[in-house]
Write a structure and sequence with these properties.
The complex is a heterodimer of chains A (266) and B (312). Chain A has helices spanning 6-30, 47-53, 56-89, 95-103, 110-124, 130-154, 158-166, 171-200, 205-208, 216-226, 230-253, 256-261. Chain A is an all-alpha fold. Chain A has one domain: MetI-like (MetI-like fold, Orthogonal Bundle), CATH 1.10.3720. Chain B is an all-alpha fold and 312 residues long. The chains are: A mainly alpha (266), B mainly alpha (312). Chain A: Belongs to the binding-protein-dependent transport system permease family.
């Protein structure tokens, strides 16, 4: 009886419908040919997608988001790899405390971090700058990168490294030629997860972004606060299409479940 | 989490895997300070960019504020006293925790059965459905909430549908109400519950269910006596994640609840960016942080202890 009964399947269909409804409605409304919000009843139109081109601030915010995600994830990886190696393979005083510190941003509400960074960056003169955005994003995405790299380096076979060392490789060569290639899948997926988290972040960023330097989700959020029109639906729809495309690639290459649950698929 | 990651901040890790990593094999080190050197860049970064700003926020919450003088550098606990004394703040905090509690309950009620149904599906359906369930975590929370705003307000599709089915006679108000915020937040957070229960289901051997059935247990008994006890830890840790994220959620209550229906996070935002009473905003933030940490750490302890009793 390892099969789902009819009631279970009805529940399942309703559940998926609930999850998909708001996403589908955004895409549907984006194709309206009317000048106001409506479901496309009288023909589809791409006018609102073309209208995005007339609003360069969305395009600029999108580019800023991509750059911010790429730079902050790369920095997070550079910090997380040595830290993960230290935690995974050394027994030292304060090891648990250091790991807890690196994972602690997961426990702090992003609204609190936004307030904290706004105050801090205003004081040291980084308020509203791209550098400020990068530094704050590194803090919030580092736990995600660290966890995946930690899992990769804990599961690694140490004998290969010892072999390399006994054959005369220096520690740097050993890291570059043996350790890094072995933990690379964890590092790559850590980068991807960090990038996604940076790209989607809105609560903290809304405090520290400035009108000149802002991200796409923040731009969308502030726009929606004022009014909801087919233009934001079109921008959201583009964002959804891109995310779905990235998700399908990611699922093919690495496995979405593995990325999110941290375990292999069966 | 955002997941991913969604997005409204993730407590996923801490709650889902209380102790992920076993201590590494012991190995004599020539350099006892190697691990410190390796984690030094991260430690420096976190000390300057996490601890200092958080301490500064706490200090800011002790300052006072006046509309003419701005922020005054005095040390007092007047802001905390104000919040404790004022019934307006009670209402906001109470609403925040009420919404978080209902959302957690709904997520457990719908997310746990869904995870179980997913596990019993065959590929390729299982992979496809899992993609649909987890996918929304990667889509920006602003886009997802916009979808609910469209369904509730502008197009009114939800009300049209409910009235068409004859379930209600007059339209229900969803925008700017707790009902609307609860529905949208459940949508945003339920994938975390599915993930958490899914992870605990991986440890459940389907043969145990078959054994119970072959010994004459009915399907309901199997569910109650065999499946449920094994996934309860997953439901509990999922609930911790969902509750913490719901209590500190910002974008969804801001869009659906608007300025009429404030929760703790939108209250702090308004004090900071509209009223400009930074000390009071910082006080709300500090209280939210303390509540969050106490709930996550406290509940994790409880779950772990209970878990031990069951399996030792």
């Amino acid at each position: 009886m390892n099969r789902n009964g009819p009631i279970a399947l009805i529940f399942h269909v309703l559940f998926l419908g609930f999850l998909l409804a708001p996403i589908l409605i955004v895409c549907a409304v984006a194709f309206t040919s009317q000048g106001y919000l409506s479901l496309p009843t009288e023909g589809l139109s791409l006018r609102w997608f073309r209208a995005i081109g007339d609003n360069p601030e969305f395009i600029r915010a999108f580019k800023d988001s991509l750059l911010l995600g790429a730079v902050s994830s790369t920095l997070a990886i550079l910090v997380a790899v040595p830290a993960a190696l230290a935690i995974a393979r050394h027994q030292f005083f304060g090891r648990e405390a250091i790991q807890a510190l690196f994972l602690s941003p997961l426990m702090v509400p992003h609204i609190v971090l936004g307030i904290a960074f706004l105050r801090f960056f205003t004081m040291i003169g980084l308020g509203g700058t791209f550098a400020g955005l990068v530094l704050s994003h590194v803090i919030i995405i580092l736990p995600f990168a660290l966890r995946l790299i930690l899992a990769a380096s804990t599961g690694m076979d140490r004998a290969v490294e010892n072999a390399a060392a006994s054959l005369g490789a220096s520690s740097w060569t050993c890291f570059r030629r043996v350790t890094l290639p072995l933990i690379l899948p964890g590092v790559a997926s850590g980068w991807v997860l960090a990038f996604i988290n940076s790209f989607d972040e809105v609560t903290m960023t809304v405090f520290i972004a400035s009108p000149e330097t802002t991200t796409l989700p923040v731009r969308l959020f502030l726009y929606i606060q004022d009014n909801i029109d087919p233009l934001v639906a079109a921008v959201s729809a583009v964002l959804i299409f891109l995310t779905v495309a990235a998700m399908l690639v990611l699922d093919r290459v690495y496995g979405l479940e593995r990325l999110l649950v941290g375990k292999g698929r069966d | 989490m955002s997941m991913a990651a969604s997005t409204e901040s993730q407590v996923q890790a801490t709650a889902a895997n209380p102790s992920t990593h076993a201590p590494p094999p012991r190995r004599p080190r020539r350099w006892p300070w190697t691990p410190y050197l390796l984690s030094a860049p991260g430690l420096a970064l976190f000390a300057v960019l996490l601890l200092v700003p958080l301490v500064m926020t706490f200090l800011l919450s002790l300052n006072s504020f006046s509309f003419y003088g701005g922020i005054e550098n005095v040390w007092q606990i007047g802001n905390y006293a104000d919040i404790i004394a004022d019934s307006y703040f009670h209402e906001v905090f109470l609403r925040t925790f009420r919404i978080a509690a209902v959302v957690t309950l709904l997520c457990a009620l719908f997310g746990a059965p869904e995870a179980y149904i997913l596990r019993r599906m065959k590929s390729p359906w299982r992979g496809l459905c899992l993609l649909i369930v987890l996918g929304p975590l990667l889509i920006s929370v602003v886009s997802r909430t916009l979808g609910w705003a469209l369904l509730f307000g502008s197009t009114g599709l939800v009300n049209q549908g409910l009235m068409g089915l004859g379930l209600i006679a007059t339209p229900i108000e969803f925008m700017y109400t707790e009902t609307g915020v609860i529905i949208a937040l459940t949508h945003v957070l339920v994938p975390f519950m599915v993930l958490s229960v899914w992870a605990s289901l991986q440890r459940l051997d389907p043969q145990v269910e078959n054994a119970a059935l072959s010994l004459g247990a009915g399907p309901l008994t199997v569910m109650r006596r065999v499946v449920l006890p094994q996934i309860v830890p997953g439901i509990l840790s999922g609930s911790i994640i969902v509750f913490a994220l719901a209590a500190s959620a910002f974008a969804t209550p801001a869009i659906i609840g608007g300025r009429r229906l404030k929760v703790a996070a939108t209250l702090a935002y308004d004090e900071f960016l509209n009223t400009l009473n930074w000390p009071l905003g910082a006080t709300v933030a500090v209280l939210l942080l303390i509540a969050n940490v106490v709930i996550i750490v406290g509940c994790n302890r409880l779950v772990e202890r209970r878990y031990k009793q069951v399996f030792e």
